[in-house]
Design goal:
Number of strands of chain B: 2
Number of helices of chain A: 8
Number of domains of chain A: 2
Largest sheet of chain A: 6 strands, mixed
Number of strands of chain A: 16
Shape of chain A: globular
CATH architecture of chain B: Alpha Horseshoe
Strand content of chain B: under 5%
Largest interface: A-C, 57 and 57 residues
Structural class of chain B: mainly alpha
Radius of gyration of chain B: 16 Å
Strand order of the largest sheet of chain B: 1-2
Strand content of chain A: 25-35%
Oligomer: heterotetramer
CATH topology of chain B: Serine Threonine Protein Phosphatase 5, Tetratricopeptide repeat
Bound molecules: adenosine-5'-diphosphate, magnesium ion
């Protein structure tokens, strides 16, 4: 394992220290327990958007803390979900009285830890909500699995709902928007190489020189299937078609009811993409793939969308939700309506995403 | 009778056993998960070890609850809240106790496992830690009905646990990260089922030591 | 070799096609010969800044075309300098009457090809200037080598001089500023892995599991020395000290004289950094190193600068001047005066760098 | 006399030889450069091949100049302008010629090499293509002074070129990318010196073919 790190146990801490000294204008960092929060938090009267998850996906989530995006982010150990005390302390630090929305990627660990955190924060008098991101079409059903993983749509949702919170949306409005973005977004990923968790010291899986993994998540875990390596056009076609051809997806989610102080279950079904849809396309590097190759992916996505009557109205291309140094990419399509576009275009000022300011 | 000192010794031994098995558990998790289960458990029990001296004079219920809270706030991942809940619930069930009879011992484990199920909603055959615990608890209950030698009964339970752990190999995962692999999860032993076996095995070894 | 590409001969062309369809609001692309240019070029009365070089360093240079930065960029084949016809045609497309400034990284190939281009453009009645970037302190002398390579300072210079051109600086003012930025900037790079030129199909060099290359350039070429792998703190200390301890550097450069229509030689000497200097710090990924690791590098750079009385006033952290999928990083320090800071902070709107708009 | 058809055949053969040696030259460049010299030369001469049919009826000077311009606008890198200048200058020196005597042949090569030096300002021993050409031109001049058999003299020049190419191995580079390696450039044969040898060798082989 060769990485720019010191002791494996200090990796996350030292990277956060680097972030703190690099971006004091945008964010601050608390170390015991670990959370990243807006330099100007709490902001009275505005909903505070908090996300978090295992480290190793940088710039997500810490790099998305700042004006117009996250109020706070809770980094776990590499690829390990953070603990409830982090989220709870973070919630207390950023709540401006309008409540806290936790954006949770759908992994068993994240879900369980964020649910505990929400309970703790609510018990402290903070209005809370948990909205799940589960957009990975590589996972086919929710009955026989832990459900679809939260991947690329997370980044888009953090941007869009962060802008809505900045604009004064209340907690229910922010939650509705986040749920909608999640229902409108679908993703698929692939890997050319594995990555190495520092503490593990060797690659999570081995891939032959002519092999690739299709349908991976963002944790260096093996994917849906292993296939013979092929051209970027074929890879992109396969992934884009999986996204566009994916049928309705049903699952039951648990959301918090601030009236009764209990979890309520909701059945949610999202609808497939259709000709005529306007979309935001997000082509993401898993970390080790340079942006030049992403443009070759984007080229083919654009061609397929044009063929199928899906109109790309915005795009994001780069390493935003990564798996350490893994080579590979993911593609996310997000159906965009007026509300979504308005908040996508709104100013954002974070280390990882910046425009309009 | 199982003494408080033995419970503390069990927890201390666990910190050693989980350090020894850090790579093994991580290796199992890299086949069907994200290669961190051993690292997570080791991190959590290292924290437990730090905490132990300051709580060793509390009652067993208190000690177990503190272990649970320590795991919840240090492990993360899926196993953090699950094992955290396990110890929190077993601690609540052992409130104020300074020593445990056989019945207590079953109750300790049963409450913990109930906590795991309530949190994680796993069912038998989902290829999780629960698949180790369910048959193990049956063995415990059945064996104590006819034999009150704690060590003999625990030995039987450990045998069941070992078999149950191995029985996760042919299962297809339906919970946790391994479920994303679908059929590719078949043929690998579940990391959480393995750490659960180690937890029980270490309890037996601790009591055998004396 | 595993990359997200189709046929190796089409790599550059298809990546450019992807860029063109991704960013029509910012840039356009000409294919025969290849150059990227601002969507709103030519802009009457403003100096047009053009850069270029081998491909494989993305987002540089094509990704820096847009408002407040480059007017045009000429991509060569991967790691191979472009040809004079590209620069000449690009110059004609973007010249708004105020002349064209070519920013040239100091490599024999780039220098020779850009000199030819400048002669051609001048012969066509375009006012021209060539300013060299040669900031790589890993190259020790200019008498026994082709001189210091142009690396990280290039990105900063494109940003700063691009903003000056946008603000109405004339050709001489832009040239003076570019020369100053080059003289104020120093860089050093290192690699954990080699990279693979698509057409070559295998890594340029091999590094053992415990080895790293120190003092590399940006073309996957071997570096100054091979060393045993060590911690990020030691690596960063070594590189930052080489930059800070580097003495005066003299060389002779050729610039164009628009009066006489000939090349004139100039002797240039830059001065070392001093305690009290204000600097912009640029920590760059070579492509395969994720931004998380860059923060560990930045953490140590900040510590060393603080110890030595060098004040960091701005920073840039990410993959901006890369070597395909190489793992590794480079560090650039640029002494920043008021003029430099003003143009650093000015709005920029390109695919690769964006703020203020 | 060297005919125009022979010059065209030389250029055609070069496209074959440089394709054959694409990997070899790239390999040499990966040791002390950026692994593209073979790719660059092959790309350039493929373009030359495309151009040849349309210019084969021009005079030799014109043909060579077109080759030079083609190389300049298709090769890139350091070798593009250098070999481009080589052929431009040799073309200018052979203006209007339809065939070449021995004196012309020397002048063709000498003018080309002068162009390389003027552009690249390399000196003897800098470990560049010039290190192949300088001793080779000396051999040519000396040999033609006592022998007017073109092929015999060219054979002697090729021998010198081969030796000169190998003599770049112990040199430390002072120009081009290889110079960045300092002492580490020692022990590797220069790619440009090698392609220069191939260019001369192919001229000889073409004339021997007839
Ligand atoms: N819903 C669940 N119920 C019970 N156990 C579970 C559940 N989900 C996962 N597990 C257990 O957790 C183990 C993985 O733990 P760990 O690797 O530490 O967390 P993560 O999967 O978040 O990386 C699995 O091997 C499995 O035994
Ligand atoms: N200044 C120079 N004068 C003469 N030849 C040079 C000079 N610089 C480089 N070369 C030659 O160019 C060769 C490298 O060509 P090539 O790899 O195609 O270009 P680049 O170095 O730009 O990648 C070297 O092997 C050397 O022979
Ligand atoms: Mg994990
Ligand atoms: Mg795991
Ligand atoms: Mg080159
Ligand atoms: Mg080369």
């Amino acid at each position: 394992m060769k990485k720019l790190i010191n002791a494996v146990d200090d990796v996350v801490k030292e990277q956060l220290e680097g972030m703190a000294v690099a971006h004091p204008d945008m964010l601050k960092i608390n170390f015991e327990p670990k959370y990243v929060y807006r330099a100007d938090a709490p902001i009275a009267g505005k909903v505070a958007l908090i996300s978090g998850g295992g480290s190793g996906h940088e710039p997500m989530h810490g790099g998305f803390v700042g004006m117009g995006m996250l109020a706070g982010a809770c980094p776990g150990e590499v690829f390990t979900s953070p603990t409830p005390d982090q989220m709870y302390e973070c919630a207390k630090a950023v709540d401006g009285g309008a409540g806290v929305l936790f954006l949770v990627k759908n992994y068993t660990g994240d879900v369980l830890n964020f649910e505990t955190a929400a309970e703790l924060a609510y018990a402290d008098g903070i209005k809370v909500q948990n909205i799940l991101i589960d957009d990975d079409v590589a996972v086919k059903d929710s009955l026989y699995t832990a459900g679809r993983r939260g991947v690329g749509t997370t980044v888009l949702c953090e941007k869009i709902v962060g802008a809505a919170a900045e604009a004064g949306y209340d907690l229910d409005q922010c939650s509705d928007l986040a749920r909608k973005v999640n229902m409108y977004g679908r993703s698929m990923g692939m890997a050319l190489t594995s990555c190495t968790v520092p503490a593990a010291g060797k690659p999570t899986f081995e891939l032959g020189e002519d092999e690739m993994e299709i349908g991976i998540g963002i944790h260096g875990e093996p994917g849906q299937k292993r296939m013979a390596m092929t051209s970027v056009d074929e890879i992109t076609t396969l992934m884009t078609n999986e996204i566009l051809d994916d049928g309705p997806y049903s699952r039951t989610v648990r959301e918090w009811d601030n009236e009764s102080g209990t979890w309520v279950e909701k059945d949610i079904v999202d609808q497939p993409f259709q000709a005529g849809d306007e979309v935001i396309v997000f082509v993401n590097s898993m970390g080790g793939t340079p942006v030049s190759e992403l443009y070759a992916v984007y080229r083919k996505v654009a061609e397929i969308c044009a063929d199928r009557g899906v109109k790309i109205v915005r795009n994001l291309i780069g390493p935003y939700i990564t798996s350490l140094e893994m080579q590979g990419c993911s593609i996310t399509l997000l159906k965009a309506d007026e509300e979504i576009l308005k908040f996508w275009d709104a100013p954002v000022n974070t280390p990882g995403l910046r425009w309009g300011v | 009778m199982v003494t408080k000192d033995q419970i503390v010794a069990w927890l201390e031994n666990l910190t050693v056993v989980l350090t020894e098995n850090k790579e093994y558990l991580t290796q199992l998790d890299s086949a069907i998960g994200d290669a961190d289960h051993g690292i997570n458990m080791d991190r959590g029990f290292k924290k437990v070890k730090e905490k132990l001296p300051s709580i060793a004079d509390k009652d067993i219920g208190n000690i177990l609850k503190t272990v649970g809270m320590t795991l919840i706030s240090s492990v993360g991942g899926a196993s953090g809240p699950l094992y955290g809940t396990f110890f929190m619930r077993s601690g609540m069930a052992m409130a104020a106790k300074e020593e445990l009879n056989n019945e207590d011992l079953v109750k300790l484990l049963q409450s913990g496992v109930d906590g795991i199920v309530q949190r994680g909603r796993a069912q038998l055959g989902d290829k999780t830690m629960y698949d180790t615990w369910a048959p193990t608890l049956e063995t415990l209950n059945a064996a104590f009905a006819t034999n009150d030698n704690t060590i003999e009964v625990l030995q039987a339970a450990v045998n069941t646990a070992e078999q149950a752990m191995k029985d996760t190999i042919p299962m297809q995962a339906k919970k946790g990260r391994a479920s994303y692999l679908g059929e590719r999860s078949i043929g690998h032993q579940d990391p959480g089922a393995t750490s659960s076996y180690l937890i029980l095995k270490t309890l037996l070894d601790t009591l055998v030591e004396g």
